[in-house]
Amino acid sequence: MKSLINKLFSQSRLLKTIKCNNQLMILNYHRLHDTNKNIYFDDGVYGPDAKRFKLEMEWLKQETHIISEDELFDILYNNKKMNRACSMVTFDDGYVDNYNIAYPILKQLSIPAIYFIPTKHINERSLGWWDITAYLIKNTKLVKTHFRGKEIVFSDKKKIIADIIIELKKMEASRVEGYINELSTSLKVPIPSLELQGNELMTWDQIKEVSQNGITIGSHTHEHVILSRQTLRDLRFQIKKSKDILEEKIGQEIRSISYPVGGYDHFDLETKKVSESLGFKIGFSFLTGVNRFENIDPFDVKRGTSQPEWTNLDMALAFPDRVFQQERVTNAR
Ligand SMILES: [Zn+2]
């Protein structure tokens, strides 16, 4: 393993020397892949397996200063200066592998991170619509079906899942549940039990434990709704409710929020204003690029995702914009 890391690091000295020192590159993950386990739900939320994740963390640690939420707060509000490339690690959605796989590695390497939690999912042990959609399509025995005026032929299930997820991301939140129930009937697959869904998520005890051991907890709203499409009243509810629940459950002030899905279609000026007025200090977007220290907007702190084809990891630091612009919009949740 050591020699592989050295090989990756020494591949290009040139890349290292042109590395940008005024940048903060934030890698966001959703799930890590346990290679011994079948994936019953959405494949699109999976990042690397444990071995690759550890390699990425060792690389970040060797090449950058990995900052915590506290340090980012000091950079944004207390004029703290950084004179080297910095990075940050975050996880969205509260999946159990954040605890089982990521947490032991982060702890072993003393790497701080932020876990962003959608509070209703943890409270009710229920997964998001993207996971349920994937489950229903993966489990249908039908060869084809008629659904909402269209014929769906199940020849390429991956593509069908991706297409439906794109459609659902554009849909008004109140119509999503009806759509999923209709899909379940049409595909003749029952909605998975809450037990099966809950097995994929961290428990409050696990979230509390990580919060006491180097992981900061942040809000990912209450119901993982797309914030730019909420009425002002619903927007305030989604943000405040999640903050109140998290503060009560873990006994710490919650200062950071990551906007669900996170692109510029999914949050807006009102989202930023309401987050600030409800006591948040930092808002994170997703698939939005790399931050330059001289112009970070505290309510649009940009994040990207690591890419499986980063065989030369230095590339990411030398040409961060180019790397992060390879947006995988369909994989944002
Ligand atoms: Zn999310």
Descriptive notes:
The chain is α/β, with parallel strands linked by helices and 333 residues long. The protein has two domains: 2-124 and 201-331, Glycoside hydrolase/deacetylase (TIM Barrel); 129-191, no CATH class. It has 15 helices and twelve strands. It has helices at 2-10, 13-17, 50-63, 69-77, 97-108, 119-124, 129-139, 157-170, 173-187, 194-198, 204-211, 232-250, 269-277, 314-318, 320-324, and strands at 23-29, 31-33, 46-49, 65-66, 86-92, 113-117, 144-147, 150-153, 215-219, 256-258, 282-284, 291-292. The strands form four sheets. Strands 1, 4, 5, 6, 9 and 12 form a six-stranded mixed β-sheet that branches. It has a two-stranded parallel sheet with strand order 2-3. The chain starts with a helix and ends in a 9-residue tail after the last helix. Residues 92-93, 220, 224, 260, 333 line the site of zinc ion. Zinc ion is lined by residues 92-93, 220, 224, 260, 333.
Secondary structure: elements and pairs:
Layout: H1 2-10, H2 13-17, E1 23-29, E2 31-33, E3 46-49, H3 50-63, E4 65-66, H4 69-77, E5 86-92, H5 97-108, E6 113-117, H6 119-124, H7 129-139, E7 144-147, E8 150-153, H8 157-170, H9 173-187, H10 194-198, H11 204-211, E9 215-219, H12 232-250, E10 256-258, H13 269-277, E11 282-284, E12 291-292, H14 314-318, H15 320-324
Parallel strand pairs: 1-5, 2-3, 4-5, 5-6, 6-9, 10-11
Antiparallel strand pairs: 1-12, 7-8
Helix pairs in contact: 3-5, 7-8, 7-9, 12-13
The structure holds zinc ion (ZN).
The site of zinc ion has 6 residues, from loops.
Write a concise keyword list for the protein shown above.
two-stranded parallel sheet; 15 helices; binds zinc ion; TIM Barrel; 2 domains; 6-stranded mixed beta sheet; 15% strand
